[in-house]
Amino acid sequence: MSEARDATVIRVEGLSKTFAGGFEALRAVDLEIRRGEIFALLGPNGAGKTTLISVICGLVNPSQGRVLVDGHDSVQEFREARARIGLVPQELTNDAFIKVWDTVSFSRGLFGKPPDPAHIERVLRSLSLWEKRHNRMITLSGGMKRRVLIAKALAHEPEILFLDEPTAGVDVALRRDMWEVVRQLRDAGVTIILTTHYIEEAEEMADRIGVIRSGELLLVEGKHALMQQLGRKELTLHLREPLATVPERLARHALSLAEEGHALVYTYDAESGEEDGTGIAELLADLEAAGIAVKDLHTRQSSLEEIFVNLVKEEA
Amino acid sequence: MNLESVKTLYRAEMARSLRTVLQSIVSPVLSTSLYFVVFGAAIGTRISEVDGVSYGAFIVPGLIMLMLLTQSVSNASFGIFFPRFSGTIYEVLSAPMSYWEVVVGYVGAAASKSLILGIIVLVTARLFVPYSIEHPLMMALFLVLTAVTFSLLGFIIGIWADGFEKLQLVPLLVITPLTFLGGTFYSIDMLPPFWQAVTLANPVVYLVSGFRWSFYGISDVSPLVSLAMILLFLAAALAVVAWIFRTGYRLKP
Question: Above 70 in pLDDT, residue A271?
Answer without folding.
Answer: no
